Amino acid sequence: MKIKRWKMGELKPYLAMLVVQLIYSGLTLLSKAVFNRGMNTFVFIFYRQLIGAIILVPLAFILEKKRVVSVPLSFSTLCKIFVSSFFGVTLTLNMQAIALVYTSATLTAAIVNSLPASTFFFAVLLRMEKVNIRTKCGVTKIASVVVCLVGVATLAFYKGPQLRIAQYYNHKSPHHEDDFSSSKRWVLGSLVLFISVIIWSLWLVIQAQILKSYPAKLKFTSLQCLSSSIQSFCIAIAFERDIEQWKLGWDMKLLAVVYCGTLVTGIIYYLQAWAIQKRGPVFTAMWNPLSFLIATTGSIFLLGEPLLLGRSDLQCFRYYYFFFLNGKYFF
């Protein structure tokens, strides 16, 4: 039996996506914490995108100034980036933030893990991936997608027995308990979250297409952040006119905004675009289940959320099922 020897260049996409998932987990936990404290979701998204744009735009033009781009930035490409930013970044982030208020950090991380299945579906639909239903491999791929979708529906409608391990976090919003007791808000949050994942997966696939015509990854990412910050401001100012909601102090709200703006918006988008160009959108999406394990642990011990046993078992099953049936994207 031959043992594959990994070169550093081959390991880079794996290390990049590991970092991405670690940062994403921190995003989910910090976002839930500040939303529990009453921070407006639209204002939060605007601030994080603005900080990301402030960091990325100068870096992009400094670091890629001397690099030769095969195709210059055309008006058509700029329009594609702006539109894809609205659906894949601005709309998705705002929907996920609203869903996070309605549900929990654990559920958010769990439903986001349907991203590999939906990304694979769109990749097949756009002929970026091939599936032969007459082969065993093709059937198992389709089965894995079905399992993921059924799992999402179960996560939305079935909570399972609760196991409260820790109760350290006490800064909950006045409606926090209602969020758990109201099944309508829970189902609505799950539905909004699932729709955002579908849009997100389509965005990943479209990114791969745009990067083929405009391979300047850092400039591409900075333009997305800049576009999203403008779009997010328009949405935030339309829904929130209270000046007090726009103020930031030296507290967790500022920490969350800076963390998300620098690490999530500033670094993750670039690493994600780089990994998509190297290994494709399906490879990138398949790393998302890792954030579920980290976010679940953090939500239990840091936010004091209960562990829903049925959901945890189901999510682990979905994760390993999709991972092993689609191992070719990893190795």
Automatic annotation (TrEMBL):
Membrane topology label: Multi-pass membrane protein
The keyword Transmembrane belongs to this UniProt entry's keyword annotation: yes
Protein's cellular compartments: Membrane
Pfam families: EamA
Transmembrane parts of this sequence: 12-30, 42-63, 75-93, 99-126, 138-158, 186-206, 254-271, 283-304
Entry keyword set: Membrane, Transmembrane, Transmembrane helix
Start and end residues of each EamA domain: 13-146, 188-308
A GO MF term: transmembrane transporter activity
Record's GO cellular component terms: membrane
InterPro entries cross-referenced by the UniProt entry: EamA_dom (IPR000620), EmrE-like (IPR037185), WAT1-related (IPR030184)
Entry similarity comment: Belongs to the drug/metabolite transporter (DMT) superfamily. Plant drug/metabolite exporter (P-DME) (TC 2.A.7.4) family.
Protein name (record): WAT1-related protein
